[in-house]
Amino acid sequence: MCGIVGYIGSQKASPILLAGLSKLEYRGYDSAGIATIEKDSIRIAKDKGRVENLYNLKETKELEGTIGIAHTRWATHGIPSKVNSHPHFDMTESFAVVHNGIIENYLELRKFLEENGYKFISDTDTEVVPNLISYFYSKDNENDDFKILRSVKKACDKLIGSFSLEILSKYMPNNMIVVRKDSPLVIGKGNGENYIASDIPAILGYTKDFYLLNNFEYVILSKDNIKFYDNNLKEFSKETTTITWDAMAADKGGYEDFMIKEMMEQPTAVRETIGSRIENGKCNFTELDFTKEYLQSLNLIYIVACGTAMHAGLAVKKTIEKYCKVPVIVDIASEFRYRDPIVNEKTLCIFISQSGETADTLAALKLCKEHNAKTLAVTNVIGSSISREADFAIYTHAGPEIAVASTKAYTSQITLLTLLTLYLAETLETISLAESKEIIDGLLELPSKIETILKNTKQISQIAKNIFKEKDVFYIGRGVDYVTSMEASLKLKEISYIHSESYAAGELKHGTIALIEKGINVIGIVTEPDLVKKTISNVEELSTRGAITTVVVNEATEKQIDKSIFNNVIVVPETISCLSPIVSIIPLQLLAYYVSKEKGLDVDKPRNLAKSVTVE
Ligand code: G6P
Q1: Global pTM?
Q2: Chain centroid to CA 3
Q3: Helix (H) or strand (E) holding 593
Q4: Chain centroid to CA 160: how far?
Q5: Which mutation among 612, 614, 615 tests ligand 1's pocket best, with the greatest number of atoms within 8 A of CB?
């Protein structure tokens, strides 16, 4: 779970690499480094700490080369330290490598290399890679142009795990080799120069034309040329994909942090996700070819995802079941993949992933394909691994999400999944015209309702001032409000480091209520009109035991409560039940944000977390 960047051209490489790394820090930020090809050798500047430290290193300033590779690390093997930072050399300093992923069999490979006289200086799994290349290079007696590529391929054939690699060699001073397997890598095509990165936004300022690499595609780059080789090292040609995002969209756009910018973008993200999917009162998904017969043959829909994306799945479970009359199981990808799930051609498997790169979600998808189920990806990144691996892919149009804590991707995911439900139910003919109209009207009104809530930052930031010193915060709700409480709790803990739990309000009496004492903060989400009395009485029970209570209500449920008994009442616009998770999460995203700001934390890059978890 690291970020990699590369540049090959006529300009000095290091400033371009540093700028790219800064954009990739969300993927890891415990150390950073650069290697460039200098006159007759490769030079490395690296250290632990953030990319900004790398800017100031004397070694960085001395790099003059126009071909370079760079890395920002999220440690998996070996503590964050200078020696464990990438790039890594082989023992002879002839090959330098940066790596994203995990080499699972590195101990075995290291032993083999040590037996062959290779010495290691780091604790990383990566260091076996340049040394293996060096080993195969030394064993190859041919001296043709492909000797290095052959050595790289022989090394990659030995690797078990995931990797995207950039490789420099002093024997090949005008080129760079890259390859990937199960870790992301894109190549940006320039004019007399080319770029490599873990994701598109990192280099979007330089080009809009990208090559999206598949597993085991080997690439030799020069400044004027990009040559692709398959896993048998046979050359093939590849088409570029043109990306239409605005480079500015990936920047902070005047906001203090990416997270607040991304929360504020939610009206637009939701509006663009709806896009032109609704036409003449119907929902269109031309990229899907699900027939009524196929959908009727289904006995189960699985939704598999991680983190916030999994919560988006939970938020639509009831909607799909209600309107499509098919049972839905929502599962955490890391659990699903190891529990031998019952999946077959009668199961539709939906995978939600903002990045489209989450390792567990990708592995779960592959498993479902092996069991002959149809697979559908719901992602935000065109060309991502999950979108390419799935039989079908549909996209949220939230734009690049940089802050680790997911906000606009979440609300866009629920929006898109609700549209998908409409399409499925319309195809199945299990939804009435009136029901479908109610949902469509609700969807179209969402952006302006979200805008209204986003104007209410004053009240929320005031509540944050009263919460930021707390050690525990509890969130409770019933039905879809319970899902919102899970997502709200995750937001708070990940960016404020306050311990927080979410509970189904009806479960409190089965244990959790024992934790409630004077001064504990409890946040109740109460937007389900049919359940308002029940949830409110749960909040009241906590209030009488000394809890400080905040409730999130909507314009309808507000009328059913006595506001004077709660410490804070946040009112959001009313919408239909299946869309209320989109509306009611907004003030709670803001609350987590302001609590984190009150604590003076780095909102966008919380400790120990990474935006894209491309390893298990
Ligand atoms: C990480 C991120 C979360 C995200 C989860 C799943 O944990 O910090 O924000 O929800 O991964 O990521 P995905 O890209 O698959 O949605």
Answers
A1: 0.74
A2: 13
A3: helix 580-598
A4: 23
A5: 612
